[in-house]
Design brief:
60s Ribosomal Protein L30, Chain: A; two-stranded antiparallel ribbon; 5 helices; about 30% helix
């Protein structure tokens, strides 16, 4: 079986006047993330992992931040577009494992909603999506609450509904 694995990483500073969107869910917080789209670091890390697994570049290659078409774009829509690129190559998502590094806000109350939103965008069962959160324990920029990061690992497998590449 031709399995493909990709990793993704995304980081954004916090910015006033924006909603905080993570994993497709608006998380109550006093600041959102700075970025051209909705700056959903979780969706971005997963999309980059999917693209990397098939050597298709990165999110910025497909949705450049200097293109006004992607200004304030919903990152779940971008993730669904990446899913289409992956399907066009004959692959489907097997599972996703993502970790968010953030001192604040506490994400545990929102993890299940994130799993649901991401599973829908990826076309998989929620059991195939894992979201975890950890803190930097006050160390560095993340520990000071200046922003957050997300990391993801994705397993892709040949899609039996598509022709193999």
């Amino acid at each position: 079986m031709n399995l493909r694995v990709g990793i993704g990483y995304d980081v954004h500073p916090f910015a006033a006047g924006r909603p905080l969107v993570l994993g497709g869910v608006v998380v109550p917080h006093d600041r959102g993330l700075a970025g051209h789209s909705d700056a959903d670091a979780v969706a971005h890390a997963i999309a980059d992992a999917m693209l990397g697994a098939l050597a298709l570049g990165d999110l910025g290659t497909h949705f450049p931040d200097d293109d006004p078409a992607w200004r304030n774009a919903n990152s779940l829509d971008l993730l669904a577009r990446v899913r289409t690129l992956v399907a066009d190559k004959g692959f489907a998502v097997g599972n996703v494992d993502a970790t968010v590094v953030a001192e604040r806000p506490r994400l545990a109350p929102h993890v299940e909603a994130m799993r649901d939103a991401l599973a829908t965008a990826l076309g998989v069962e929620r059991a195939s999506v894992s979201i975890k959160a950890t803190r930097h324990e006050g160390l560095g920029a993340f520990g000071r609450g200046e922003g957050l990061a997300a990391m993801a690992v994705v397993l892709l497998h040949p899609d039996p509904a598509e022709k193999s590449p």
